[in-house]
Amino acid sequence: LRAAMSAAVACMYLSLNSALAEEATPGPESKGDATSDTDGTDELPPMPAQEEDRARAMLACRRALWKKWSGGPEEIGALVNQTLEDSRTESNNFIPTLNYTEASRLLAERQLAACSREVTMADLEADKGGSLSEAAVDRLTGGLASGFNLTQEDREIFEKASRSEHVNSEAPSIVGIQVHRVPWWLQIMYIVGVVAATCYFVMFVARSLTAREKEKVRQREEKKEAKKKS
Questions:
Q1: With 90 as the cut, is the pLDDT of residue 112 above it?
Q2: pTM of the full predicted structure?
Q3: Which of 29, 100, 111, 194 is least surrounded by CB atoms within 10 angstroms?
Q4: Average pLDDT for residues 192-199, to the nearest whole number?
Q5: How far out from the chain centre does Cα 222 lie?
């Protein structure tokens, strides 16, 4: 029950709107000895996420946490219990300073902070293409993440990125283009263009109907004249 509670608390804290897609991006296959390094140099380390990609990193880590916490409640429950036990100190007579909910939230925040610092550009591309692999999720969100904490700047970036993602998902779009991303002057031109096209269509239809009525009246007049002459 506690494991399920901890997973629910983390999910509420991360404010997720939908579950992730299933794992869809397997890693590249390793090459054989014939195509391995011939000069004896070591493989280059993964490139860490850049400063301008911190918002993307936060969102990728949020999805990784959701996947981790929803897929392994027993493991997460054990980590929450350990976080709870770690709050016992001699200064407070070994009484926990956290309740279970607070311990769950603290663990989620620590794991989010650790993930945001460990995520690489390859992880961001994998998240963009579908979802992170199980190995990547374990690497980024595994363990107690002791010593990691969200800074105020991290919290602001996380909240801003989450709001932006929500706006982007809810905003209306025209031909796949989200309206709120279109400049206001272009929106005005679009509205004026639509109104002008509608007016032209109405005038064209009205003119066609008027011309048809005039033609009918002319034909009736011609028939009357023909009868008089006969």
A1: yes
A2: 0.56
A3: 29
A4: 84
A5: 72
